[in-house]
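User: Quick one: structure for sequence A, then sequence B.

Assistant: Sequence A:
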Amino acid sequence: MSDDPTADDTDTPPMRRKVSDAATPGGGPLEDRAFPAFDPAAVPPRPPVPDVSPRGASPAAVSTPLDTADHNAIREQWRAARDELGTHVSNARGQLDQANERIKERTGRDLILAILIGLAFGAALLASLLFIKVLFVPFALAAALLGVYELSLALRGSGRRIDVVPQFAAATMIVLSAFFLDLWLVWIVLFLAVAFVIVWRLVGQMIAADGRTYGDVLGDAVIGGFVQIYVPFLAAIALILLKQEDGQWWVLSFIAIAVAADTGAYAAGLAFGRHPMAPKISPKKTWEGFAGAVVASVAAGVLLALFLLQLPWWIGVIFGAAILLSATLGDLGESMLKRDLGIKDMSSWLPGHGGLLDRLDSILPSTIPALCLYFLFSSWMVL
């Protein structure tokens, strides 16, 4: 070994740097047959980033976050829109209330409550007739008992002596017998019920012995029997019709025609009413309203005859006209009764309607022509 560092010593192993430099004559890293020289131009370009911005918006506009001022502006716009909507709703409600007050001043009825209560009663009526018709029996019984109670209280307020408990018992017997007993037995039950309330009143007067005149006692007895005929017996006729074959559709039809007549008279009288029909009996009924009732009842009768009862159209005209006549007479008759008693409504239990009898005054008398027309035309087929 030589001490000269420059001497060529073949026995000394080459350094790593030297080996690397010897393997790369051009001086580049890893430049040999296994690792060719790196060429940056041979690297493929990076694929473009997909554009997820909304159509028509620049990427810069999308990528830029909204600042606080923009958030506040959007919040103010939403608040302004909400306040404007609230203002429109308040104005509409005020206009509706004003229109309702004008209608109430003219007709004496609260239109909105009347509509809501009418829809509720209509839904209950439809449910009892469309599914199982026996469900209409408790509906009719409750209506009859409430009507008896309203009429009894109104008569007692005028000075008549009407016994409520025997009236309830007699009314229950009449209504239930109409659906569960034969027709001839219903007449017997009616006779017994009327006799029962009359005898009860006479015996009660004998026990009281308060010096009431003979004419007043006789009037009390007769009026007590009238209560049974006016409310429970007419309701029982509806149940007699109900238990017939397809009777539920006839019950639904005559009630619908009576309601249509009442609604047509109300709408036409409110819009065009100028000429009173019976000013001494009911000052608010007009001939224009009666004309609206004619159109509504006949149209309802024809439609129900064709599509529900499967009868010729001309039977629907007769049906509508008959129910219109009975409904009008029933309405005027109850108006005469209330005028004689000195009251406006039978009660105030139904807001917008008055009492239950104020709504049944046109329906109860219509049970008679409805039953007669059923026995007359039920066997007819559409030609």
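Sequence B:
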Amino acid sequence: MSEHNGPENRGLDGGPDETVEVFTDEVVARLEQDAKEIISRYPKPRSALLPLLHLVQAEEGHVSKAGMRFCADQLGITQAEVNAVATFYTMYRRRPGGDYQVGVCTNTLCAVMGGDEIFSALKEHLDLANGETTEDGKVTLEHVECNAACDFAPVVMVNWEFFDNQTPVTAKRLVDDLRLGADVAPTRGPASLCTWKQASRVLAGFDDGRAGEGVQAAAPSLAGLELARRNGWTAPDPNDLPSPSQGEEGAK
């Protein structure tokens, strides 16, 4: 997929850096077609950088030097500008990882409900530290600040699909099934998981046709809506809102 130049260096994230410098001509020719489609969606080409980074991540499973150079060439910007974005967002891997990224929420509510316990159990069970990958290349483990599913805490995500109301026991069973190649179904959404590379391609904007599969919003997420319907509550009319001064007077 790529050509190698020079000795191995240390990465910007402190880990081993890739010696990859450029994609092969075959890879560039193939990715350019997708890149043109992505760039055409935006009024200014440089606005396409985020999905382009997902595109190159779908090629190698992480954003390498070759991937950043490809993005820079497609957008007419510097590699430094690409690197600044790729190292800012945590959804871009800077080194190779597993087929399945298991993210355990350790933010406030999930932590209180058992997220920290789940993360500790998985680290011991898999013999991994945060951000490390199992030797078989199947699972990368990471703690996540928020999986945006507090109503189902504690939550684990695998390649951005939800596994709700987890426990140390169910989480260990989940990673074992992933490593064994067993059929694994998220709590909500599609009936099966895609790989990390496939998920990255979807995030680049190429629909896999599965966005509408399965349950999208379960009971805890809809509780407020159901309560409002039962009581006849509606949102305020945006054309008939009190002025800021009226609000201040009411507060007094």
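The first strand starts at residue 2 and ends at 4. The two ends are 67 Å apart (CA to CA).

User: Thanks, that's what I needed.
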